[in-house]
Fold each of these.
Amino acid sequence: MSIHCPYCGVRPIEEFSMRGDATTMRPGTSDPANMDMKLEAEWHDYVYLRDNPKGKFEEYWHHVGGCRVWLVVTRNTITHEIYSVVIASEHSISKQLSHAVDLKMTKDAPTKEGPSS
Ligand SMILES: [Zn+2]
């Protein structure tokens, strides 16, 4: 198995270290003054709970034996086929933007079904 690093090119898997699930989102705040039961539960899930899915999955990989960049690798956990490799900082920005849009839509919408007409 090999990974195509955006900076180094195709490199053997031994140069990389898998660093876990890239699909989790950090809860909104860690400020103890604003902590409630719901937020504590979100932090518990974020820190301790992980899925172990079959099939397509996004993972953090660190190119420790090369340029040391953090990557988000989308791969099939059964076949190990790699679908995409992106630089983690670029992936995080797009994910945070879409999360912010989701939060805004949830906040603005009167119901889960969306605004009434
Ligand atoms: Zn690299």
Amino acid sequence: MGGGATMTVSTDMETKLVAAAREAGQHAYAPYSDYHVGAALLFEDGAIITGSNVENASYGLALCAETIAVSRAFGEGRRGGLQAVAITGPADKGDGSPITPCGRCRQVLNEIAQLGGTDPMVLCVGKDETRRVALSELLPHAFGPAHLNSGLK
Ligand SMILES: [Zn+2]
């Protein structure tokens, strides 16, 4: 598993996916950082599953938008088929550079991607630029389910 060709999506679908991530970001629970993040996962059947970050009064327990989205996908029974991911952050924070998934989220995304043998395109949305990076570029030489049991479902 893994090592497949990087997925590509149409410009229209990219626009739709980014809009879904932005919409999800509006539902972020981020009262402490006020850093609202949205993530949208596109699957090969056209389904889009979103997530937004969820913080906690015990700061260290915060959950990222990507992790929430992947958890929702698993909860719906999905095991692979991940084609693309869009991630959006607040337009008025930081330097406006494209937002990239944190290290933990790269690993979390890799799990569902490797189960289906895809290398999803990750759309990292910034203020003026969207960076398109393959997950395998964000997390090279990834440790994943194939290392444990290729038959995991
Ligand atoms: Zn993260």
